Amino acid sequence: MSRDDLQPASSETSDDELSIGQRLRAAREAHPLTLTQIAAELRIELKFLTALEEDRLDEFPAPVFTKGYLKQYGGLLGLDEGDLLAQYYRQVDVGEVPVMQIRPIRLRDEDQIRHWIAAGVVLVLLIGGLVAWWLSRPSAEPVPVESAGALLSEPPIETSVEDAVAPAMVLTPGVVAEPEIDPDLVGPTVEQTAVGPAAAVPEDPAPGVTVQVEVGFLEDCWTEISDARGERLFYGLGSAGARSRFGARLPISIFFGNASGVELTVNGESYPVPAGSRQGNLARFVIADSGV
Question: What is the spatial distance between Cα 248 and Cα 265, in angstroms, rounded to a whole number?
């Protein structure tokens, strides 16, 4: 259906005696057309066209929608859009839009404007002075190359091993003095040689053995590893692709949250997760023997 095929409808009743809805309905029935056909042509919901024909103009969300639908509907039926809008204003009793009154500028307002202009000028001058001061201030003098070279060329103070150890040792004739060594600082890999017949061999050498442990994470795995000292060597989530290496004192307690996603190596040799330690994909076991 084309709008050019629709011509203004003739009616025996004067348009001035009809409401907007009656004019629209009469023009539609004169063609004839149904509301469903017009709704499909204009792509307007049927309820809005029905409201227009029944003069329920206050049911639209806003007057702008009412006037827009009215112009489209009337234009399709060949009615004059200007006449429809004029009748719409009369029918809904819309008054004229009040004209905004422009208040003349008083003398007080002119004084305020001058004050604001003066304040702006002062602010611009202040900013300009700060910028000029910043650009003109002297820069820091660089350190002479000779002085820097002299500082770098000063030889470091050399201290021999004998000088460092000597104050801690008191020698008595006939007695062999042995410096005290903290095993926690030196580490369990230091072999201590006993001096004299009073040296005693520890009964259980196993807790003093240190092994090198390496964990390769094929997948993300929550891991907890502690050694004989109760120190946590690894505690957290191992990310896929990461590897962790450290020395540990036997026995070692190990927990894997994803046992199939890790590779364990002890002293350079692969250490499979014991089958009896698994519970699903969880594994908790202890490495107590150094002969891995």
Answer: 12
